[in-house]
Amino acid sequence: MRIQDYTRLILLAAIWGASFLFMRIAAPQFGAINTAFLRVLFGFIGLALIMLVLRSSFNFAGKLRAALVLGVINSGLPFFMYCLAAKWLPAGYSAILNATTPLMGAIIGVMFFSEKLTARKWIGVILGLVGITIITTLGESHADSNVLAGVVACLVATGCYGLAGFLTRRWISQRGGLDAKTVAFGSQIGATLFLLPFFAFSVAYEPEINWQQPSVWASVIAVGLICTALAYILYFRLIADIGPLRSLTVTFLIPPFAVLWGYLVLGETLSSGFVLGAVMVCVAVWMVVGPGKEKMAAR
Q1: Cα(128)–Cα(137) distance, rounded to whole angstroms?
Q2: Do 80 and 36 contact (CB within 8 A), yes or no?
């Protein structure tokens, strides 16, 4: 990997780490489905403005349908799941569970994309599952009765991310490729269209929501324009440059930023059980995505 690739990974981690803070602020006030829809909507608007300013092409080269479906898998469903989790879990919890994305990617790759795992990577997957169990059973949260539901929601989201990485390679990269901004723009169109009916239903049947909250709107706009529009351009560019599995290593860097933002802004703290589970998950991710002895020897 080049220096610019590492730089983009760190920047992307800092941005996506902040997204858990913004969702933690917005989801309890606006609701999970509304927050998820507004996130992809502002992401769509932000990407459209960026592409207009840069005079980028809106030609999908026959890959529009693929980009729309990727939007549902890589944005619509995961964002809804994380907004659900944000109602119950501190930002740090969601972020460390987000770090299981490479583990999910490894499992999905073996099951559906003929990927092979070494013994080390299998040990990493098992260790990651043990770490998740410790977080679920020993970690403390502000809503203890909903911890399991929040964890499951996060794991559904990471499963979607893992699947989307391989589908992006198969549907986009291996078919002539497509500009990262165009892929990200198409994905936000797909996510917006997918969540729109649920948003309309929610607004119609949840009139008690207080929409006049400037700080919440600021969080929604930030998570849409910065953590979605800008971040997805970086992410799809990374997939094209370094591949899906390496791109998923960004999730290894997100938790420290999410914990930092949560501590500075919301005063969130972490339990000893969470710390133990988080360390196990991080070690597991390193075992899955880190270079093996053969690659190090080759270098």
Answers
A1: 14
A2: yes
Please tell me the distance from the alpha carbon of residue 256 to that of residue 240, in angstroms, as a whole number.
26
Q: What is the pLDDT of residues 241-266, one digit of tens each?
A: 777 667 766 767 787 788 888 888 88
- Residue 163 CA, chain-centre distance (Å), reads 12
Whether residue 109 is contained in a domain is answered as yes
What is d(CA 177, CA 161) in angstroms, rounded to the nearest whole number?
19
Q: Note whether residue 286 is domain-resident.
A: no
Determine the 3-state secondary structure of 62 from DSSP.
coil
Task: Supply the pTM of this predicted model.
Answer: 0.81
Sign of CA dihedral 97, 126, 141, 276: negative
| Number of domains, the chain | 1
**Tens digits of residue pLDDT in 262-299:** 888 888 776 667 778 878 887 887 787 666 554 544 44
User: Which ranges in 54-146 belong to alpha helices (H)?
Assistant: 64-71, 77-86, 91-98, 101-112, 119-138
> Nearest CA to 221 among 8, 30, 10?
30
Residue 151: inside a domain, yes or no?
yes
In this structure, is residue 299 part of a structural domain? Answer: no
| Domain membership of residue 227 as a residue range | 3-119+144-272
Distance CA 297, CA 176 (A): 33
Nearest Cα neighbor of 83 from 165, 149, 7, 139 is 149
**Torsion from C-alpha of 249, 251, 255, 257, nearest 10 degrees:** 80
Tokens of 90: 């501190």
Q: Give residue for tokens 């939007």.
A: 71
**Other CB atoms closer than 10 Å to residue 157's CB: what's the count?**
26
